[in-house]
Amino acid sequence: MCGIVGIIGKEGVVGHLLEALRRLEYRGYDSAGIATLNDNRIERRRAEGKLSNLVKLLEKDPLPGSIGIGHTRWATHGVPNEVNAHPHATDKVAVVHNGIIENFQVLRDELVAAGYKLASETDTEVVAHLITKFLDDGLLPEEATTAALKQLEGAFALGIIFAGEYDLMIAARQGSPLAVGFGDGEMFIGSDAMALAPLSENITYLEEGDCAVITSAGVTVKDVEGQYVVRSVQETALSGALTGKAGYKHFMLKEIYEQPQVIGDTLHSFVNLSEKTITLPELPIDFNTVPKITIAACGTAYYAGLIAKYWFEKIARVSVEVDIASEFRYRELVMPKGGLAILISQSGETADTLAALRYCREQGQKILSIINVPESTIARESDAVLPTYAGPEIGVASTKAFTTQLTVLATLTIVLARARGAIEVERESELVEALIELPARVADVLNHDERLKELAVELAAAQDVLFLGRGTSYPIALEGALKLKEISYIHAEGYAAGEMKHGPIALIDDGVPVIVIAPFDSLMEKTFSNMQEVIARGGRVIFLTDEEGARRLGNYATHTIALPQVDPFVAPILHAIPVQLLAYHTAVIKNTDIDQPRNLAKSVTVE
Ligand code: M6R
């Protein structure tokens, strides 16, 4: 999962390539590199680590050229170093790649046997050498590329330039997203529209198996059968300006603080405030007759799906299955005719979630996606999309995308319940009311930030942290543990509170902080028993509850945070905020790279 970009420009392209790479750095930051043409030759600059290292290198050793390709890497094959950094090149061709060439070892062995010398450990380098081999055989660049593509197995988005060819770039897509942007006598390629936003307002998305031949005059596209096709050109609504940190120290903190606003924005598009009803956009789905709902997603988005399962089953009385997309796609699940599949993804590009979508489509399911990036592949392949209005999420740790996903899923719960006759009018009004109040209550939760910052000192000193919850608080426990792990690098586990006694309770001692998430609801007393079991074994409990929960049980815990009292329906949305802030402040104390934590990338476009 990497970011790729390419430009055929009128003058030096390196500045624009770097700006586009900056917008793609969320896809990986293990290394970065650029190749251009100079005196008919391919020249490269590559640097290990973040894009800033490449920028420094280019300041010392600039790279002219009016055509070029660039790459920001999340390492799959080969350690993150300069030799493995893209672009990979021979003296005839340079290649940037996002994806995985699964048969690279076979191809590599054949190339080595034929006398080609490969320098890196990457799968990508075989593509450069394979095209070179066909060029050596006398084929023209397009022919050589087509011949090479036929031999590749796996997933790829490729950008390719050729020595001596100032007005030619070839792009190919199979399984990894790729957009072509149009300028005035200039052309662009990029992994997503965001990368191209400052350069081009008109974008074409390549489809599976497409190969595009790009010159400064435009693009011709051949499909997987080798037939010429015309792909539609869309105007992109994305802003050219990459949002800054607005005075916050990190994007993550800014995004946490944006939640009252973006939850409000998301609600405004679905809630009729005067009538206190929910109206979703016209969807080609009959909720009344849907026999079963299947939800697939990854990471934080999966936890949003887990909460939706509780809501859909309890409130809308519909049977729900939810799974991690990477497991789901190989389970060969039997799905009922006329079923509904819901895919949840911030980026809309997560490879496993996309594969799950395609499996559901093959099984005849209606596809509904909940997506933050409307131009994304998952959004484009869905029958219907419910957008989250979180705005660009730059921090690798998902925060506002999660709570807006939950907001959309909560509105969907109400619509489903109404369509299925599972909810009384009065209760429906109560739920809508609770949603309308949500942005204000989320803002109230942010007032606990200072206190959470103090508690983070305790977490930062720990080696292991446990998060416990029941019902809809259980996925929040999982999410709290994920947030803490990914940005503070402290080992953390989320558990269903009632499951503790079946094993994990052995971990409890006074060195393991236990965060118990339990608003005042029908399950609180049960969770309280589990909390007592922890306290009895010397565990230190941080109790995240609401005012009523604190009044009843707050004295038992080492620390208690009393969040605003809300309808239990929306409580998980509210309780997501303190676990985000705890993770954030712990990571600040640990001095980690919060917005770009080690080994991670924002969008995971490989399996
Ligand atoms: O873009 P997606 O929502 O599909 O991404 C899914 C996960 O990769 C993502 O939520 C990941 O777990 C986050 N880093 C969690 O903070």
Structure, described:
By secondary structure, the protein is of the alpha/beta class. It has three domains: 3-245, 4-Layer Sandwich (Glutamine Phosphoribosylpyrophosphate, subunit 1, domain 1), CATH 3.60.20; 256-445, Glucose-6-phosphate isomerase like protein, domain 1 (Rossmann fold), CATH 3.40.50; 448-590, Rossmann fold (3-Layer(aba) Sandwich), CATH 3.40.50. Helix content is 37%, strand content 23%. It is built from 19 helices and 27 strands. The strands form five sheets. Strands 3-2-4-1-10-9-11-15 form an eight-stranded antiparallel β-sheet. The chain has a seven-stranded antiparallel β-sheet with strand order 5-6-7-8-12-13-14. Strands 19-18-20-21-22 form a five-stranded parallel β-sheet, with helices on both faces. β25 (513-517), α17 and β26 (540-546) form a beta-alpha-beta unit. The radius of gyration is 26 Å and the shape is globular. The N and C termini lie close together (9 Å). Residues 298-301, 345-347, 350, 353, 396-398, 482, 486, 603-604 line the site of 5-amino-5-deoxy-1-O-phosphono-D-mannitol (M6R). The site of 5-amino-5-deoxy-1-O-phosphono-D-mannitol has 16 residues, from α9 and α16.
Largest sheet features: 8 strands, antiparallel
Distinct small molecules? 5-amino-5-deoxy-1-O-phosphono-D-mannitol
Counting structural domains, the number is 3
- Which class of the largest domain in CATH terms? Alpha Beta
Name the helicity range: 25-40%
| CA radius of gyration | 26 Å
Number of helices, counting only DSSP H or I runs of 4 residues or more? 19
Low-confidence stretches: none
Which geometry do the CA atoms define? globular
| Mean pLDDT level | 93
List the strand order in the largest sheet.
3-2-4-1-10-9-11-15
CATH superfamily of the largest domain: Aminohydrolase, N-terminal nucleophile (Ntn) domain
The chain-level structural class is alpha/beta
**How many beta-strand runs?**
27
CATH architecture of the largest domain: 4-Layer Sandwich
Quaternary state of the chains: single chain
CATH topology of the largest domain: Glutamine Phosphoribosylpyrophosphate, subunit 1, domain 1
The termini sit apart by: 9 Å
**How much of the sequence is in beta strands?**
15-25%
